[in-house]
Every structure is written in C-alpha cells, then in structure tokens.
Amino acid sequence: MTTVAAMSFWDGLTGQADAIETLRSAASTDPGNSAMTHSWLITGPPGSGRSNLAYAFAAALLARGDDDAQATIRQVGARSHPDLAVLSTERIIITIDEVRTLVAASQFSPSVGRYRVVVIEDADRMTERTSNLLLKALEEPPPRTVWILCAPSEADLIPTIRSRVRGVRLRVPSVADVAALLERRDGVDAETALVAAREAQSHIGMAHRLATNPEARDRRRRTLETALSIRSVSDAVLSAATLLAVAGDDAKAITEERDADERASALRSLGIEPGGTVPPALRSQLRALDDDQKRRATRSLRDGIDRIMVDLLSLYRDVLLLHLGVDDEPINQSMRARLDEATRASSPASTLAVMDAIAVARRRIESNVSPALALEAMLVAVSRHAVR
C-alpha cells in the first residue's frame, strides 16, 4: 500500500534505480519483510539526490496506505509530519546539542505513522564526540524508530557508526537522465534541459536552476567569459572582484526567497500579522532565525564560489580535451567558438597548469583562506599562461 506514496516521491529522482528498489522493498508493508532495518546511510556525490531519496524513503515508511499517500507527501515535503524529525544544518559542524535533541525525539513512539523517522542530511559534519552520542542511539533504537543518515561517502563517518547502518550508494546520474527529469518534472523544453544537465555536470539541483532561471545561466556564462578574457595580472585582480560579485549575486538569489518565506512562516506561527509589531517577549525567537539565516548566507557564498571553481574546471577540461583530440561533446558546447579560440591560444601544459591552480584555490578556500586572495592567486596563474 505504501508504494503509491513512495512512487510519487521516486518520480522526482533519476538514475538511481537500484537504490530506489532497495528502499522500496524495505518500506514494504508485506508481512515478514526481511529487507527492513532501523539504521540507514545514503551516500553519493553532490547533486546525486541523497536528501531527496531520504525523504522519499521517509514518506514510504510514514504513509499508512493509499488514502494517506498524498497527505504524507505534502507533510514530508514541508518537513511538518508529526513522526518526522530532521537535522539539516547551515553550520560547518553539527553541534552535540542538536544531536542530543534529535536522540531524545527518537525515543518517542510514532503518533500517526507506522514509524518515527529521523533524518540527518549532513551526517559527515559531526565531530567524533557527537558521533559517539549518535552511536548509542543507533545501537539500541526503539522498535519503531528508523534513522536515515546522508553523507558523501561512508568514509566520512566513524567506523562504529558505519558498522551499524545499512548503506545505499548513489551514483552520478547521466546527463540524459537529468535532462529527462527536468522535462518531466519542471516542464522544460528538451534542448534547454539537455544543455542545463550537461553544464551542471549532472548535478540535479544545479541543473534545475540553470534550466529554470535565466539569471543563473547568465551568471555562469559571465564567469567563463571573465576567465577567458584575462591577459594580464591587472586583469586577474579585476576579474577576481568580478567573480566574487557573481558568487555574491548567486548566493543572494538562492537565499533571499527562502529567507522571506521562513520569516513569514515564523511570524504566522507566532500569531503576528504581516507588518505587525513583534512583542518584546518573542523577539529572541526571531533573532535566532536571523542568526541562522546569516550563517546560511555565509555558507551559500562559499558554495557559490566553489560552483564558480567547478564551472572553470569544466571550461579548461573542455579545452584540454580539444587539445588532445578527444571525441567527446564539450560540457560548454554552447560556447564552442570561444573554446576553439582558447585552444588555439594555449597548450596542453598551460591548460593543466591552470587546472592545478583552480584545484589549489579550492583547497585554500576550504582551509579558510580569504576567498578574494585565493581567487586572485588563481587568476594570476591564469594570466601567466594567457597569450598576450
């Protein structure tokens, strides 16, 4: 019976047939279902759909039957189902207090569903001390509680947790699979969907943005055009400022609408009309929301800078393959004329040197080096290998 609820969620995923079948079987209401266990770990590269699959599985577990399917889908989508607990952080590290609260919630019996489901979207962000707290809950879970952890890889979690979960590994979906999903789910035309899926390198979330948001496409093109126009150190310094601005605009576009919706929802839950005065006793709750949104803005900016690096790597990857005569369609086929020009103006060795500089910049920013300084150093390396 639960299959109907699950199917509606599975339809929003692509390229993960084996993983879907594993979780669909586990969520089955068949008597004596041996595929079910109470602790799961979904792993896969960024954009593969880890959290989407986790919530699809959660809906399948929570739905009580066909009549309950659509209501469960809406509640899980809104993260408002009474038997669903979620930990999704905007911080770099998940705090021990956040996990302690989640562990306490996991002890309650389900109120309306078949299970109480607990999802941790970024389980790789737990310190060892926090992981050990979670370990105790995984070792002795209540009979009707199900834990679903998400992480890039199994190696991101401590061995004792890995030994107590059943792993489900996702792969990078193909460009064709992602394009088909955009057509089916978002109503995007075939050509736009294919270009977006290719330029996003099969990252589902980014492909959706590129396919449905002309401004996101323009920002990406501006990034690549900026790098291709560098001819000197002064160009590099100016271009670093341009790329930071592009990343900032991208981050703002991602967070602005979500922040407004969150604030409106918080005001409604506190019984405050739009534009109304917030009573002093309730202001601390809104300050906490503001603090969370500021942290998310910071993280979103860093993510935006990293997306720029990934796009630049795709650009120079295309140039390198053209140098080597590899018969693959470039990721940035829409800029083919500029790619051919860049190939004629460079060598395989210089292109590899630029790709190395981009990789170094990513590592530096990950280590909390100033993004502006890391971008400047990277683009100075680009200028050294540019043909004057």
From TrEMBL:
Keyword annotations from UniProtKB, A to Z: Nucleotidyltransferase, Transferase
Stored SUPFAM superfamilies: P-loop containing nucleoside triphosphate hydrolases (SSF52540)
Annotated Gene3D superfamilies: P-loop containing nucleotide triphosphate hydrolases (3.40.50.300)
Coiled-coil features, chain-numbered ranges: none
EC class: transferase
The UniProt record lists the keyword Protein biosynthesis: no
Top-rank taxon, per record: Bacteria
GO molecular function (one): DNA-directed DNA polymerase activity
Keyword Protein biosynthesis assigned: no
EC nos: 2.7.7.7
GO biological process, one term: DNA-templated DNA replication
Protein name, entry field: DNA polymerase III subunit delta
Organism of origin: Frigoribacterium faeni
